[in-house]
Amino acid sequence: MRIVCIGGGPAGLYLGLLMKRRHPEHSITVVERNKPYDTFGWGVVFSDAMMQAMRLADPESATEIEDAFNHWDDIELVFKGTRQRTTGHGFIGIGRKHLLNILQRRCEALGVELVFERDVESDLEFPDADLIVACDGVNSRIRARYAEQFQPDMVIRPNRFIWLGTKKAFDAFTFDFQKTEHGWFQAHIYKFDAETSTFIVETTEEAYNSHGLGDLDQQGSIAFCEKIFAETLDGAKLLTNARHLRGSAWLNFSRLICGKWSVFNGRSHVVLMGDAAHTAHFAIGSGTKLALDDAIELANQFDRHGHGGDNIGAVLEAYEDVRRVDVARIQNAARNAMEWFEVVGHRYADTLEPPQFFYSMLTRSQRISHENLRLRDRAWLEGFERWFAARSGIAVKDGERVPPPMLTPHRVRGLSLANRIMVSPMAMYSAQDGLIDDFHIAHLGARAMGGAALIFAEMTCVSPDARITPGCLGLWNDAQAAQWRRLVDLIHSLGHAKVGIQLGHAGRKGSTRLAWEGIDQPLETGNWPLISASALPYLPHSQVPRAMDRGDMDRVRDDFVAATRRAAEAGVEWLELHCAHGYLLSSFLSPLTNRRTDEYGGSHENRARFPLEVFRAVRAAWPSDRPMSVRLSCHDWTEGGNTPADAAIFAAMFKEAGADVIDCSSGQVWKEERPIYGRLFQTPFADRIRNEVGIETIAVGAISEADHANSILAAGRADLCAIARPHLADPAWTLHEAARIGITAVSWPKQYVSAKGQYETNLARAAAAAAQ
């Protein structure tokens, strides 16, 4: 085949040498606009896994690259007058110029033609090529030519950064955070040869503009950065090799995703690789890795399908199928890390103490978890756990195992919780006339013995017409209150667990069938009239609710207050007001469901007016020493609906009204929603509200392991974790997860103690067998 790589970066060079090495008959040309053995940029970072892949792909170049690598294990943080360090992270760095020079020499040795100082405008300049590989960077002209086919999605991110270097060798991957009168600046610093380090300085657009950095030339920007980071530089100068850039050389990162990676131009197949196809933020240092992985996978697919022109179409299809998955995984992690740095100042640096800030930074991409940190640096993590436990009031003796964050106590108002795990409210649809029955006693009693500190029953409705289905719990009469007392007494008799109630009103989502008979589907008979913020049905064929008038509001408010008093008299210790998931109070908050033109519609203040009225009335009726939380839908996942920014506004309003905690859920407001699911997918909402609004939060959603909960709590992303479906599958989830991570100093119900040792032994045996 005749192969032309447009762009002489890592992707093009590495693909050229791999294809030539595996099939010498190929005619391969790499075209680069710069001079021979010339490049811009400083150092790049690899992982040990990337190096192993390169050893398999081309041992010759891998050996030379390894010989040039600088290896370090430590990460150091300079922050608020402290220096903290952790080890075991295994980075390797090399100068970008050195890396490209090695790949250039290897290409020449194999017979790949290298053409320099040629600026390619179009793929049509190579009509004899069977395959044109467009690896011409994030501003790819080839991709732009076929934009309709490639479907590029380019987002310019808000932060500014400048890519510098220094002739000072740092012995750790160093992060330095410095606050100025206009905001925070952070430096990402790592060594890549014996005497030189990359020094990337990043800040917000606001700080960039306030300091007038756009008006400075490169030398002015360098002088500014040298002053801010003078202590870390310790007399060393900052350097630039980007003199080709005009102005100050401060850049914005461009996040790129393409809908398709290859096209046929009528003569040649054209495929995107590296930054021309996708970008990953430098916060996790994966841009070069992605480019090299692209080259390896494309070469591997030719090995599988055959190195012939007739196979190119199948090869490119398979290449994209495989790479898209891994690229999405890396981009997700890079996005998490990038977004952390974009909001680091006001969300974390201003609010967190240095130990927790360091933990948050280490886990920012969500690729590193709590137990992964233990594998990397047990001493550091146990020191952090000791610090976290001390803040929770636990004094751990030397030599004792420190409890992980999820097993530390937590106090809200006058209520002390034994740990940070709660059983989330989950609808069972098994009541008759709103009454707790034997099923609920067995169901919730089992979970009360499972180790969680706080047990919530399902959403409990404040009136018969507030129910979602005929099977929903209620608290509108004395018989129901008596059954709640029965439940509270049972749970208190079983151990340390406390009891919570979530009061709600279904609104437009009421009068529906039991979930297993057709979720959200209207009842065939026995319907009751519905009310909502506006007269909008949930489904096209759902019952149309009546828009509430002032009389309706008075009645509903009073129903909530009456249920609150009954809950308090029954001994319930925590009350949550349900303002999420499209139910009645949520329908006021979302602009999708609130189309009112009176004082209850329009602005955030107007949309929150009635939910806040209910909240204040309930808070006044609820004992002052007992906590009260509010569940919010923090994202409607629909164009025109509430976003996390709106949720933060509402959270601040409820905080001012006296809420202690915000329970951060999302969705279920609008049926046509498009949520983005994934591990811990709702935790960012709890993180934002906790650290920007300054109120405690509950994280909920796809939290299924102790490692998840510990990572969330340790990083200060939430104060409690609500576990839903895992508690349906395993009532003793908390006890079992504690045993799985080796925590044996946790009490089991006395009736079950004989099983505890055997359970822990079996886990230890399974772990030992898996390690062999």
From TrEMBL:
Name this protein carries in UniProt: Oxidoreductase
Domain NADH:flavin oxidoreductase/NADH oxidase N-terminal: from-to ranges: 408-734
Pfam families attached to this UniProt entry: FAD_binding_3, Oxidored_FMN
NCBIfam families: PRK08255.1
Domain FAD-binding: start-end pairs: 128-325
Gene3D superfamilies cross-referenced by the UniProt entry: 3.30.9.20, Aldolase class I, FAD/NAD(P)-binding domain
Stored InterPro entries: Aldolase_TIM, FAD-bd, FAD/NAD-bd_sf, OxRdtase_FMN_N, YqjM-like
GO MF term list: FAD binding; FMN binding; NADP binding; NADPH dehydrogenase activity
